[in-house]
């Protein structure tokens, strides 16, 4: 099983960051790669569309409001992987109330691609996503 993780310090308190990204259906609020999200099954499943119109369906598998993290599994996507599970976490930065560290990590099995290719793919998605989050919070 392959994995990757990207962290980024963002210019907002952990509570403010979590209020933006903590909703499972909130990706369009901060992630340009996902302009559309539809909540299904009472909010436990999200049906996403990317700018090319490709559909990604994900299921929430863990959610912790107090610790500010959630995990999800991909059920359907145009990515060359299976067994994908990802977690987004918001951490406090000791001694700094107005910044937070956001960590986005995932593990998955390559399918029809090399491990290096899928690690690079998701590292790029996570990095670009956290860069977009930083820009949103800095505006």
From TrEMBL:
InterPro entries: Polyketide_cyclase/dehydratase, START-like_dom_sf. Pfam families: Polyketide_cyc2. It comes from the Bacteria. This is SRPBCC family protein. It comes from Streptomyces viridiviolaceus.
